[in-house]
Amino acid sequence: xxxxxxxxxxxxxxxxxxxxxxxxxxxxxxxxxxxxxxxxxxxxxxxxxxxxxxxxxxxxxxxxxxxxxxxxxxxxxxxxxxxxxxxxxxxxxxxxxxxxxxxxxxxxxxxxxxxxxxxxxxxxxxxxxxxxxxxxxxxxxxxxxxxxxxxxxxxxxxxxxxxxxxxxxxxxxxxxxxxxxxxxxxxxxxxxxxxxxxxxxxxxxxxxxxxxxxxxxxxxxxxxxxxxxxxxxxxxxxxxxxxxxxxxxxxxxxxxxxxxxxxxxxxxxxxxx
Length: 273
Description:
The mean pLDDT is about 95. About 20% of the residues lie in helices and about 30% in strands. The N and C termini lie far apart (about 40 Å). By secondary structure, the chain is of the alpha+beta class. It is globular, with a radius of gyration of 18 Å. The protein has helices at about 5-15, 35-50, 65-70, 160-165, 215-230; strands spanning about 55-60, 75-80, 85-90, 90-95, 100-110, 135-145, 170-175, 195-200, 205-210, 240-245, 255-260, 270. A seven-stranded mixed sheet has the order 2-1-10-5-6-7-3. A hairpin with a 2-residue loop joins strand 8 and strand 9. Helix 1 (about 5-15) packs across helix 2 (about 35-50).
């Protein structure tokens, strides 16, 4: 780890501790490439692990071209999940603990076997078929993130910072796992056809489908597996991955009650205090 990456990571950690509004990274250690941002993210995750537990999973952000363009990037990005920040539904969190809390509504998978680069298939890249047998179980999830009052009109200047900042992840709320997930959805699309509905205070605020995740949740998982391999690591047996939001991000207020209904699963709940 270079001192440049460590300096950026320490600066980001301090920004979170201060709940400071998002601003540009000081020029002397701003990342100039995705590789530099990934290196800084690893340093950030290592520091955060001292307080939030070891990294036990992965997340995808910017799953759509529209979201990528908004932050000046041309591909999704990945982040890590920490053990003390992944909890079961029903759950609650304090709005005051964040610069500005945002919540996303996702599909989570639990990994059954290590997803190292595939061998003997004529390719070193994963696809939806090579990751299929590596999915042990599926569950609904809500992701908690902190955008620290980002000005989205200016986010095109901060894409690499977002990557270094662990894609803003602050945890995940998980529902009950289903190991019979292959029985869900339509015959053609499987879990890609599952619908998801987000509600705040019992009012529907968004709907989406599994296919909204890069065409299919398994396509999203394959992308994530390849991203981990490109970083010199892999998704490990027992880890969790959340695959992007089926619904546009929401910014709840104190007193709000959030509910996510993923077809075929019990709803999950989050209360904001």
